[in-house]
Amino acid sequence: MTIGVGGSTIEAELAAMSSMRGDAPAIGTEERKLRIEKAAALLEAKGYDALWLDASTSAFYFTGVRDRPTERLHGAILTKKGDLIYICPTFEREKLEASITVPGDIRTWAEHEDPTALVIASVQDKVARSGTVAVDEATRFFTFDGFRKAGNAFDFVNGNEITAPLRRVKSAAEIALMQTAKNITLEVHKAAARIMREGITTTEVHAFLSEAHKRLGAEGPLPFGIVLFGEASAYPHGVPYAQTLKEGDMVLIDVGAPVDGYVSDITRSYVFGEPTDRQRFVWDTEKAAQAAAFEAAKIGAPCEAVDAAARKVIEDAGFEPNYGTPGLPHRTGHGIGLDVHEWPYLVKGDMTELAPGMCFSNEPTICIYGEFGCRLEDHFHMTEDGPRWFTQPAHTADDPFGLEA
Q: Across residues 348-353, what is the average pLDDT?
């Protein structure tokens, strides 16, 4: 039997849990003000007048205000002068005022008014009658369409020209929050392995993952959670049906949760029972590919070099090249922070140079449709001396959590 898999119950594991939130502080107002200063300097350098921040993670990054997108426009304008102008429905003003930590003007719109026209008028009032506005890439089309109609004196560009260069390089405070989130998720993985029993369903396991993260100190509902058994583990983003665990199945769990908005995202694969030679071979190949990606992550190297290193290991083991299957059909990793998937990406064609403060997943999945799959996912952040793991990779196919190492 795989060490650390089975032998416990959902009730026992949950009863033993207490918060691991720790003392990593939430992002403070001074750090947000520094982010705003940097964004304003970028806008000025590029010749842009303002940045529209929709109800998105980028708005939270700069302002600390959390909103979810709805049909009613909420957001903020950040000008090249460093001004903030918050936009919301009139009846939401009091709620917004209670949420603001970074001061700024508040402008509201009534239900019968066009909020996109208010955004354009606010830019004209604060900055310029015409020019260029960078638009948050998370902005929905109907909002952008309103900007175009109301702001025909302006050109519009993708706001990730401003947001991506800032968000992809994490501060020490951000990395500390991410470390806390990943520590929590790794403990959830260990507990999830212990509750495995023949006949347990993926639905039961998913419910456990949600409650376990909550008890250990993560925030809110799970932003995602993939639980796969047996042949279904070959599908990277899951299947639309529940499965029931049986002896010899590969188990794949991919899950994460936020701490002050910063998310974790860790995957573990292991066998319920005794691994076969085939399962061990694939698991060992996956681990070697993950290690090769980590070793290739050098300061100044392009992101695509990390993907190429992992892919070579998998192809040398006899799997299909060029994103074919059986083999590695998707990128080796992605940036991570306030969003699970952020820029840049560890994939062929991404020439972004690795720099201190960048954070990535490392997950070169092996997919064998009709048989099983294997994904080992941990994250690393770049330091002046190279990559550093947030969590240590899985140990072996027979002892994935290194309990007898």
A: 98
Question: Distance between CA atoms of 246 and 273, rounded to whole angstroms?
Answer: 9
* DSSP at 268: E
- Give CA separation, 160 vs 76, 98, 167, in Å: 15, 28, 9
Rounded CA-CA distance 7/15 in Å is: 15
Task: State how beta strands 359-362 and 378-383 pair.
Answer: antiparallel
Q: Which segments of 109-197 does DSSP mark as H helices, in order?
A: 115-126, 141-150, 160-167, 172-194
201 DSSP assignment: B
Q: How many residues does the chain have?
A: 405
Q: Residue 405: pLDDT above 90?
A: no
C-alpha gyration radius of the chain: 23
What per-residue confidence (pLDDT) applies to 225?
Answer: 97
pLDDT band at 10 (very low <50, low <70, confident <90, very high): very high
Note the pLDDT tens digit of each residue in 271-302.
Answer: 999 999 999 999 999 999 999 999 999 999 99
Outline where 171-302 has alpha helix (H): 172-194, 202-216, 277-296
Report d(CA 221, CA 257) in Å as an integer: 8
Backbone φ and ψ of 118, nearest 5°:
-65, -40
Unique residue bearing structure tokens 């003007």: 105
Segments of 296-390 assigned E as strands = 333-335, 342-346, 359-362, 366-368, 372-374, 378-383, 386-389
What six digits make up the tokens of 36? 């705003």
Rounded-to-integer distance, Cα 228 and Cα 200, Å:
12
- Calculate the CA 319 to chain-centre distance: 28
Q: Does residue 261 carry a pLDDT above 90?
A: yes
Return the pLDDT at 361: 98
pTM for the whole structure = 0.95
Residues 209, 226: Cα–Cα separation, whole Å: 10
